[in-house]
Protein phosphatase 1 regulatory inhibitor subunit PPP1R7 homolog (Cicer arietinum), 327 residues
Amino acid sequence: MESSTNTDLDELDPSSTLLDLTSYQLHDLDSVDLPPNLTELDLTANRLSTLDPRISQLSHLKKLSLRQNLITDSAVYPLSSWNALSSLEEIVLRDNQLKNIPDVTIFNKLLLFDVSFNEITSLHGLSRVSNTLNELYVSKNEITKIEEIDHFHQLHILELGSNKLRVMENLQNLVNLQELWLGRNRIKIINLCGLKCIKKISLQSNRLTSMIGFEGCVALEELYLSHNGITKMEGLSSLVNLRVLDVSSNKLTSVDDILNLTQLEDLWLNDNQIESLEGFAEAVAGSREKLTTIYLENNPCAKSPNYTVILREIFPNIEQIDSDVFS
């Protein structure tokens, strides 16, 4: 196995500005040449527990990925003083053994920062991250509070799914936020802090009982609310740009407040308590022509003898009903 890896390393192109060492299972980089002109270094899925000091001299580097290694807080510490790398635009430390947000203060052009799938308990340290940031990923950690994000005026994507958050807060300054991912937390109440430009929101697998709170998000295109305790569809009529609505696995008994959603293409209503298709055509009249996918399985109404026939009559351009795909 070792000889195979060495052979692969020998075949790497020394003139390339991208060095991709994904899945080489390297414990160190002793057997690897690091050309000084590198702009991208991908070390995903290795066994690295330290950072090779030669990386500190790669002054042209724009993207550094250490995803899926054995990097600890002490192992990543040297990065904070590697001034030659100050022009880095992407740092990926996903799936390691970090317990804190690393100090990346020197990277004043940072666009993407990913520390998902670690053991981080607090967002302390984010206040030192450059305000140039476009994408921030801190999913699958132990975060309990949204904080130190006020300065991220350029942020487009915020991913905080699979944490221990109970409250949506401190989002008001993220005026350019396009995507907000908060699935698998403990959130009970929707609070977007006045933001109106968001296009995608996920609050799947939380503790919501109401949909109230999205009314001002008129740019919203995709809304994911599955696996909550929502009992009524409401607060949706102003979301005229919505293309995807997922309210599956809730406690809905009827379909309401989507008459105005003329752009709706995907509607996920499966695993609820919708008794009948009576009045359904009127409820979805606005999206009759546009809708191509609907899920209604595991509702009482899905047991109706003409269930599929009725839905195909309502939606002339339907392409999929539950798992059935039509040509």
